[in-house]
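Exercise (ungraded).
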Amino acid sequence: MPELRKDPIIGRWVIISVERAKRPDDFAKENGGPPEGECPFCEGREGNTPPEIYAIRKFGTKKNSSGWDVRVVPSKAPFLRIEGDLGRRGKGVYDVMNGIGAHEIVIETPQHISNLADLNEEQIAKVLTCFVERTKDLEKDSRFKYVLVFKNYGWSAGGGRFKHSRTQLIATPVTPKRVKEELIGARHYYDIHERCIFCDLIKQEIEEQSRMVLDIDGFITIVPFASRFPFEMWILPKKHSCDFYNLSFENNLDLARIIKKTLLKLKKGLNDPPFNLILHTAPFKRKKTGYWKTIQEDYHWHIEIMPRLTRVAGFEWGTGFYICPIPPENAAKYLKEIEV
Amino acid sequence: MPELRKDPIIGRWVIISVERAKRPDDFAKENGGPPEGECPFCEGREGNTPPEIYAIRKFGTKKNSSGWDVRVVPSKAPFLRIEGDLGRRGKGVYDVMNGIGAHEIVIETPQHISNLADLNEEQIAKVLTCFVERTKDLEKDSRFKYVLVFKNYGWSAGGGRFKHSRTQLIATPVTPKRVKEELIGARHYYDIHERCIFCDLIKQEIEEQSRMVLDIDGFITIVPFASRFPFEMWILPKKHSCDFYNLSFENNLDLARIIKKTLLKLKKGLNDPPFNLILHTAPFKRKKTGYWKTIQEDYHWHIEIMPRLTRVAGFEWGTGFYICPIPPENAAKYLKEIEV
């Protein structure tokens, strides 16, 4: 019997289609993409990107030259522009504003390595440090409400022509809809229970174990109960925290470790599939308003990883109704058993 | 300057990325899919599908034999099962219910034609009649709240191995999230303005003309102001109506005409791209509750058509934040000029 499961945070129903269940090796393979050419993100080609905004560099090396570990540059084809004001306005029944924002690229390694999973833990920790530092800087700009940190790995996940491992940061003047829904859902739960819904969910996952993939130091990796995609995974800090950007240096290393292991499981277990990785954390401006006081208690940052193994059945776009062709418990069992 | 536009109904922001604007012939082509084999949906192969639930047939022909115009059969691999009760239950913090529902296939022509655009208007009107008749029948089942009517055309839009033109009907025991958001958004607008938001939007589109593609009889085709996808189109009845299933026979033919012309524009103008088509109408159970009285005034049925021309940049899944690489006004101008 298929099951309908509800995402407890935003209330989205998902069909867990056990009848159509596939084995992990039934899933589609990556499409490839165009030929790569000379990569502008490799060490020694710093002149081929816009000038760097931030970098973690070896002592004594110069900006926009070799000798860096992680490097942040503006996007060459930004979705949003940094200069100008928001100009919020109405057009009859419609709302519109200028496309103000920042669009930055975190180049995660000086070598031409494509998968974050293949970097060492210290290197991944440096990448996380860049997320923190850049976001703290962008937060100073009063026009921005949110920074989206996301990775498109592989051509069919929206990755670019060059396979060099990198993550995108987009600062937006609005809170993205899905983030807002999570905030509202978490708030609603807190209003009733006076507990964080993510903390309750973590507790239940640790007790049940059936969707648990990894439990290391202060973090867990689970396959979510109402998975939208086969082998979807979430990484959550076990201790309550609304704000990714308060990561301590120690936690940073622990998080790097679980990210590496989670992505290695994906790579080894599912033949290096394309995936998207997205960081969900509390929005900006929170400290300046009364909102901050409650959001500290009701929201819980986490990372969502969505492998792109199936064609997207189109109606999911238009309905918000997802069909997952493998039960999350089976996906978790499979991933748990992959040695990394 | 790129623009941020807000969908006035559900409040989703979209980046209209003019800087990255592409010409219509820059968009990706269909991927193909596996070889087809002998099609089970063609006339004369009725034994290869499950027995029919409903059909429009030539007078005197027998069930499950030749002589039909449109034929409805259960899906061979249903997402949901028709037998059983809902069994709604909690699992700690989670909600779950049995995967009860109906999953039917409307075979739109006895010939092996793949694109609905290539059927004649009378045939398309018969297809619409099947949507109405099947939905009215499914509505009698008190377990169901909604019928999703959607078409996946082309392999990369989630279409099946056999290219024979067909539409899927899924009856669900829950209202899909996106439909619910629309209902809530429309209600909210009505509470303030005492007018239907769709009616206001239609009025504005007719006045502005810049996003209008077709205006025939009682229907219009527009490119929506906050398009998520390049060349997205909506078909709306100009006269207020919440319920697709109240279509009169005359309107049925008019709707068939505008659907045909809209899809022909897509086919001719964009090299027969894959697309999804989804019908949005008011949910069931509405007549039985006080809700029906207001929904009649605040909701407005429509059809959404989403061509699949771009790889889906992954973070859109996780954030509900879309980037459309062509301004809706340019898309509308291009589509308007395609002769059909």
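Further reading is listed at the end of the chapter. For now, observe: Chain B touches chain A through 74 residues (CB under 8 Å). The domain at 3-337 of chain B is CATH 3.30.428.10 (HIT family, subunit A).
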